[in-house]
Amino acid sequence: MTGTIIKKEIASNLLSYKFFVVILLTTLLLATSFFVLAKDFKGRKADYELVRPKPGEAIAVLPPNPLSIFAKGLDEAIARSFEVGILGVSVRAGQKSGNAIFAFFPAPDFVYIVKVVLSLVALLFGFDQISRERESGVLRLVLSNSVSRAKILAGKWIGNYASLAVPFALVSLIGFALMNLDPQIQFGAAGTVRFLVLLGVALVYIALFLSLGMLISALTKKAASSLVVLLLIWAVAVFVLPNIGTLLARQLVDVPSVKALSEKRQQTWTREVLLAIVESRGKDAKPGGVVWKTHYDTVNSEDDKLESDYRLKFDRLVRLSKTINRISPAASFVYAETELAGTGIAEEGLLKDGVVRYKNAVLQEMDQGKKDHAAFAYRYRSIGQVLVQGGLFDLAWLAAFTIVLFAGSYYAFVRYDVR
Question: Counting C-beta atoms within 10 Å of the first and last residue's C-beta, which end of the chain has fewer, N or C?
Fold first, then answer.
């Protein structure tokens, strides 16, 4: 009986205009996103080739991440150029495609489309599964036969999920395969595995919102009421809660602004330069002399302290913000996807730690009189490391949301009055 219901739901969707409108919209959005962001990636890659350090130069810069096509995240910040000098690290602008139109009309990436559009589409597939059939009398007719409500609910869920997930997965895989044929992109074996994991997490997220739609449908008597309630919940979960969580965390954790940090660094620099000028009179007037070297070391030391204090407070803010934001499944989804793609907050923090270590090594080489320095090396975390360091929690949280919502829809449907 469950199989019959699944076939009936799939056939019903295939014959409805809603299905074709939704699939066409999703295909157009994904195709546009893949095309535009692939062009953007190739532009940033060309930019990287221009700023790529020559052998011996003390510059830490990474090429753009191909997976940023799907999860842009903080890739532009990660791919910035960090130039190491006697005064520490100078941060240059990130790699950009140079197309000013992107500043006005940024193309949504794969993660954004799933987070916003596909979640809403999943609700549209589930909002009337119970209430609409109650209004039409079909539900009463079905239940008059010897079929359990559990089988009816499972058949409806699987049928609608397959109708949505299969076309979405096929379009995503085709788009990925076509981009992988481009010699300027090339994801490689590791990138392919990561994309499949990203797609898997997206499918779990879609399942969550389908379960939510069916839960509200089983709690209301009319399909129109289900739709209104779900639109409110969707807006709060996707847009309101993540922003409220971030604002609340900022109120609880005091983090100095980047401008204030820059001003403190400028004050330290000005003070040490003036002291060096006074102390070097008649002794060592050269900027590279011993007196100046001592004050340069002081500038670097105090800058490191400022950066360390800032990172501690910022990391505390990020942890608290994530904890609060995870009330919304949309936030957990974004955290999981960006970290798995290597464009998340944690990845940026690890990169900055690597840049600091590189800077210290370069300064030691400068003290030894070396002019040529080893190239900066950074390895993105593996999928296993990402999962252990928080990704698995976000994925488990999404799965738990889905299970609880489906269990709630079953409980509500068992008690549902079909009259």
Answer: C
Q: Which residues contact 85 (CB under 8 A, 6 or more apart)?
A: 58
Whole-angstrom distance, CA of residue 214 vs CA of residue 332 = 21
- Give the pairing of strands 88-91 and 59-60: unpaired
Q: Give φ, ψ of 306 to 5 degrees.
A: -60, -45
Q: Where are the domains of the chain?
A: 2-240+342-414
CA distance 414 to 269: 71
CB-CB contact of 79 with 48 (8 Å): yes
d(CA 270, CA 295): 11
In degrees and rounded to multiples of 5, residue 83 shows phi and psi of -100, 125
- pTM comes to 0.90
Residue 373 burial (CB count, 10 A): 19
10-residue stretch averages of pLDDT, the chain, 419 residues long: 85 88 91 93 90 88 94 90 80 61 72 96 90 80 79 92 95 95 91 96 97 93 90 94 88 82 82 78 58 77 83 89 93 96 93 90 84 90 93 95 95 83
The answer for residues whose C-beta is within 8 angstroms of residue 381's C-beta and 6 or more apart is 342, 347, 350, 389
Q: Is 258 exposed, middle or buried (0-12, 13-18, 19+ CB in 10 A)?
A: exposed
* Contact assessment for residue 397 and residue 329, using Cβ atoms and an 8 Å cutoff: yes
Q: What is the pLDDT of residue 80?
A: 87
